[in-house]
Design goal:
Layout (H helix, E strand, L loop, with lengths): L7 E5 L8 H14 L4 E5 L5 H7 L9 E3 L8 H8 L5 E5 L7 H7 L4 E6 L3 H4 L2 H15 L5 E5 L7 H11 L18 H8 L11 H18 L7
Parallel strand pairs: 1-4, 1-5, 2-3, 2-4, 5-6
Helix pairs in contact: 1-2, 1-9, 3-4
The protein binds adenosine-5'-triphosphate and magnesium ion.
């Protein structure tokens, strides 16, 4: 008899566009699929970038199922509520903006929220809006799930980026939502995976990226209180 699916929802969202939401979603989803979990990627963005990513090569290079339910708006929560019965992990890729009804709906039924961000001032200035939305969604839903900022396209040799990440971690308004120490660096392997409809574990010469996304996936598993790989 097969085990009941875990049914965990991980929402990746931000007010800002182009900060790595889709890249982080697809790399994490691929990694957990590779680790034996039954994974769904819910693409809530009308741009359907995650959808295009997973559909390349007819979906043959990606170990996750795609759900293109971006039209559901508020009823996204109910739809996700049905999908949790079928999948272990549902990674939800949101459209930019904190005013999207489907982002709000997803945050009302989440087990974890991740806020990918780049580290230019234009990017970090947008973080309080995202953090405030997560806080409100937790209060409204009564769900006490973790919320974390994830630095993307990070350049560790850039002092301004290091300093920006440090400042995010010291935001006194949201001490309960710190940035993860695990980051995704600025790497071609993350971007190029999309061309092949895959993720870094299936890319050549991507050793450093694999180590990095594995560390992020381990941190995500710990926050969800699930084993790093399916048992
Ligand atoms: N870790 C990374 N290393 C290098 N480039 C990255 C990384 N993460 C994202 N990028 C690049 O940044 C750009 C935006 O990424 P992505 O589409 O994932 O962002 P997004 O937040 O989903 O954007 P949108 O708001 O349009 O949905 C892309 O060109 C992508 O390749
Ligand atoms: Mg996107």
């Amino acid at each position: 008899m097969s085990k009941k699916p875990l049914g965990k929802i991980i929402t990746l969202f931000n007010q800002k566009g182009g900060v790595g939401k889709t890249t982080t979603t697809c790399q994490l989803a691929g990694t957990f699929g590779h680790r034996g979990y039954d994974v769904l990627v819910a693409d809530l963005d009308a741009q359907q970038t995650a959808g295009a990513w997973l559909s390349r090569q007819g979906g043959a290079n990606f170990p996750a199922t795609l759900w293109t339910g971006y039209r559901y708006k508020e009823s996204t929560a109910a739809e996700l509520g049905k999908l949790v019965a079928k999948y272990d992990l549902i990674f939800v890729d949101c459209a930019p903006s904190v005013d999207q009804p489907n982002t709000w709906a997803s945050l009302l039924v989440s087990d974890l929220a991740l806020i990918p961000t780049k580290l230019s001032p234009a990017d970090t200035d947008a973080l309080p809006a995202a953090l405030a939305l997560a806080k409100k969604a937790r209060q409204t839903s009564g769900l006490d799930y973790p919320v974390r900022v994830v630095a993307t396209a990070f350049r560790k040799n850039r002092p301004d980026e290091r300093m920006a990440l440090d400042v995010v971690g010291k935001d006194k308004n949201f001490p309960e939502f710190p940035p993860l120490k695990e980051v995704l660096s600025d790497r071609v392997a993350y971007t190029r995976s999309m061309l092949y409809g895959t993720f870094v574990h299936r890319m050549p010469n991507a050793k450093d990226a694999i180590v990095e996304i594995d560390a992020l996936a381990d941190a995500v598993a710990a926050l969800l209180k699930i084993p790093a790989s399916k048992e």
